[in-house]
Amino acid sequence: MTSKKKTQSYEFGGVPGACAMVCGLPLTVFGLNLICNSKSCSIFLIPDQLPPLSDFFNWTSVYIFFGWFAFQAVIAALPIGQVHLGLPLKNGQRLPYRCNAFIAFVLSVCGFFVLIYQGYDPSVVYENFLPLASIATVFSYVMSCYLYLRSHTVPENELAEGGNSGYIIYDYFIGRELNPRLGPWDLKFFCELRPGLIGWVMLDLCFCAEAYKQQGEVPAALALVTFFHAFYVADALWFEEAILTTMDIVHDGFGLMLAFGDLAWVPFLYCLQARFCLEHPQSWSTPALFVILLMHLVGYTIFRKSNSQKNQFRKNPDDVSVKHLQTLTTVSGRKLLTSGWWGMCRHPNYLGDLLMALSWSLPSGANLLPYFYPIYFLGLLVHRFSRDDHNCQKKYGADWVKYCKLVPYKIFPYIY
Ligand code: NDP
């Protein structure tokens, strides 16, 4: 089925930007993981030669990756957990989503400890880190080809506005089809929260097990980073339903950007701090760790409270928890919060997320590379902010300008 080209404005630098991302994203994942290795972790000590190709592939990793993927897919298809409806689509339909990702998380963590109890050695994951990253990368590129091809078989109104430019590489990267579904699985929804996100915590846990094996204990810094990551993921999965109103689900098609991000970028880059703390143990005083923990708690409180406040307001503006807040009523009748967390700045949830991101890196001490995540995340959220701002400007027109005057700060109150 052919479709009219709809994409009006281009993101990520248009076609050249998409080409750069398609080639550059894996280079970043592998580059950082190769530079930050067990011997050194510094941009001034780049290994002078690449490991042999055999270090990037083996069958054990293929079995682990697909076994893990299948395990998550089976849980996602089980008729347990509540079914929630997504936001209305262009055709007025609301898709059902089975939310049981938190159960998947609990089963995965329990499964990890059961396997250890039964004598399985989690070192196999640590030792195969690079080949596992390779399989995840190859799989996300191949799956994106499938997604791109199948997007030509669906009706026009099932395509994402942003990924329908007619330029193959651009649409392949951004994603054409909004909600690709296969049997019981919504592919985007499944990949967003399960194999990569829970996989990230599994990698951290394997690093803890490796530390215990090598050093007879799990260093406090590594335990703290693992706790932060696990807490963040558990929180996202506990509030799984909230993802149904995010840009990724509502606005973006499913293409390489999300597939690679979900399956390779998140698990194999976000665990860098934990791997660093395993391979380069840091000694910290208890009060210092306590300050880091406090920073995480402050970040989490801002992140969770602001996200929940907006979700509650969108679900039911008359709920007692949000009824007292000041609002701006737009021409469309839809209201925008102008007090509470959302009166402090236009994206308080990003502020909280950034504070947490920083607290994940602090246990790595004064080493630059483990700070990749908060630095990159700042760039991502500033870019995401401008994408969302642009979308809201289109949606609300002059009312959005009025709203921006009422809430002038973007992410950091009194600063930006
Ligand atoms: P948001 O949850 O911030 O949602 C943005 C939408 O909220 C807008 O499009 C608008 O939609 C609505 N909105 C904006 N201002 C107001 C207001 N004043 N009152 C009511 N509604 C308003 O979007 P994201 O998906 O970007 O972020 C969700 C969370 O995910 C954040 O906490 C973010 O930090 C996190 N995140 C994490 C990433 C990671 O890699 N760890 C990556 C990306 C995001 P409408 O008016 O149509 O409802």
UniProtKB/TrEMBL annotation:
Membrane topology qualifier: Multi-pass membrane protein
Biochemical pathway: Steroid biosynthesis; cholesterol biosynthesis
GO molecular-function terms, A-Z: Delta14-sterol reductase activity
Organism expressing this protein natively: Capitella teleta (Polychaete worm)
Keyword check for Lipid metabolism: yes
Protein name listed in UniProt: Delta(14)-sterol reductase
Xref: PROSITE patterns: STEROL_REDUCT_1, STEROL_REDUCT_2
GO cellular component: a single term: endoplasmic reticulum membrane
EC number assigned by the record: 1.3.1.70
